[in-house]
């Protein structure tokens, strides 16, 4: 009889009580998020963001995914659609999750030690109470152990996120000026301000990430590589898929093709839906003339994002180099419709005409690419080649 009682307790604990504790914790994040934002908030019970094999419930702006296997409900995740939140609001949303677990613990402690419930119920609640205190502890105490989400990105527990946000509150004014420049796509000005923050001795990961991205946007690859090396040295264990993608791009444009391919491989392993990593790896295969591998990557990128102009343009180049000129031309034309300001598209149109012996037409497209972006990779090499053909 006692054995049967323990079996019932374990089932009740695993299927009902633990999932309920996770739900309370995630609602602790979700309800404040609903109050502080005007966009959708999604809660995952039983996964770190995986909607597969889950049943979905929609309540206004609150979306919930419940894993169909209750034994997995010991984990959960809260995802906000709105990304622009003040640091104070982010701290509040992160803090309320563990506090919700603590409040549940205090209520259970009262029921266990001060209520008139029978001893069997108290015994169940006592062990449940211990688990809720444990939930509070492992979430509120900052941990450097990363949590890998379903999409391959890395996050940390609530305590570590709160600690990192508190550090951001202490950043100098130049950081906020730089972040605003970055959001307004004034990347050169953003880099200037963020360098000031770094030179003052601040070493938070977000500073490296924004600096690297800003330098990549203005195609300042030497500075992007310098900052990426510093970031790699200090935060390599915390790199996410996007970090490896940026690192790979820097190495691609620095002529370090094998190292770049290695970074892209890791980025894709971490996030199989990273269309930019697929495109960039394919672009690197194009440079080293492995066109079949390149096309395979571009097709995966296009499958993930059918309006990905760069991937279509790059696939067009690879097809032209494989002799599939008309198929390649169609890709270039479609890419041009999607993004008529893409200098690489004009470059590849020029290569198409160059390969057909139409050197004047090629020069026209190369010059247009130069006009759009004088830093287009390898453009000067192609310009020199066509000018030699035209004896210019």
TrEMBL record:
Matching entries from Gene3D superfamilies are given as: Tetratricopeptide repeat domain (1.25.40.10)
By its UniProt entry, which Pfam families does this protein fall under? TPR_1 (PF00515), TPR_2 (PF07719)
What does the UniProt keyword field contain?
Answer: Membrane, Repeat, TPR repeat, Transmembrane, Transmembrane helix
Q: Report the domain of life of the source organism.
A: Bacteria
**Parts of the chain that traverse the membrane:** 6-24, 91-114
TPR-type repeats, residues:
275-308, 343-376
Q: Kindly give the InterPro entries that the UniProt entry links to this protein.
A: TPR-like_helical_dom_sf, TPR_2, TPR_rpt, Ycf3
Concerning SMART domains, the annotation shows:
TPR
Family annotation (PANTHER family): TETRATRICOPEPTIDE REPEAT PROTEIN 6, UDP-N-ACETYLGLUCOSAMINE--PEPTIDE N-ACETYLGLUCOSAMINYLTRANSFERASE SPINDLY-RELATED
Protein name listed in UniProt? Tetratricopeptide repeat protein
């Amino acid at each position: 009889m006692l054995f049967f009682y323990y079996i019932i307790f374990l089932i009740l604990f695993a299927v009902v009580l633990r999932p309920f504790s996770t739900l309370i914790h995630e609602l602790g994040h979700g309800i404040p998020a609903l109050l502080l934002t005007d966009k959708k908030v999604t809660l995952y019970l039983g996964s770190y963001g995986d909607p597969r094999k889950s049943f979905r419930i929609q309540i206004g702006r609150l979306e919930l995914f419940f894993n169909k296997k209750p034994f997995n409900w010991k984990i959960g995740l809260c995802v906000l659609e709105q990304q622009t939140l003040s640091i104070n609001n982010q701290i509040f949303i992160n803090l309320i999750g563990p506090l919700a677990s603590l409040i549940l613990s205090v209520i259970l402690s009262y029921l266990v030690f001060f209520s008139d419930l029978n001893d069997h119920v108290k015994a169940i609640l006592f062990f449940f109470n211990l688990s809720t205190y444990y939930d509070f502890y492992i979430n509120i105490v900052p941990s450097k152990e990363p949590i890998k989400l379903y999409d391959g990105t890395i996050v940390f527990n609530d305590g570590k996120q709160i600690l990192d946000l508190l550090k951001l509150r202490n950043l100098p004014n130049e950081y906020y000026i730089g972040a605003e420049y970055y959001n307004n796509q004034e990347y050169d000005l953003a880099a200037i301000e963020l360098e000031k923050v770094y030179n003052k001795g601040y070493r938070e990961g977000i500073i490296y990430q924004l600096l690297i991205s800003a330098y990549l946007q203005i195609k300042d690859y030497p500075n992007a590589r310098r900052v990426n090396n510093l970031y790699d040295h200090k935060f390599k264990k915390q790199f996410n898929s996007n970090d490896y993608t940026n690192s790979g791009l820097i190495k691609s444009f620095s002529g370090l093709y094998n190292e770049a391919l290695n970074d892209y491989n890791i980025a894709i392993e971490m996030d199989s839906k990273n269309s930019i990593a697929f495109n960039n790896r394919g672009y690197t295969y194009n440079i080293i003339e492995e066109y079949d591998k390149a096309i395979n990557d571009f097709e995966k990128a296009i499958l993930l994002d059918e309006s990905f102009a760069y991937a279509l343009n790059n696939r067009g180049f690879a097809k032209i180099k494989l002799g599939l000129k008309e198929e390649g031309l169609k890709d270039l034309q479609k890419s041009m419709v999607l993004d008529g300001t893409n200098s690489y598209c004009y470059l590849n149109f020029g290569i198409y005409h160059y390969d057909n012996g139409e050197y004047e037409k090629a020069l026209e497209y190369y010059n247009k690419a130069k006009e759009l972006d004088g830093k287009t990779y390898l453009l000067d090499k192609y310009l020199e080649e066509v000018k030699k053909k035209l004896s210019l």
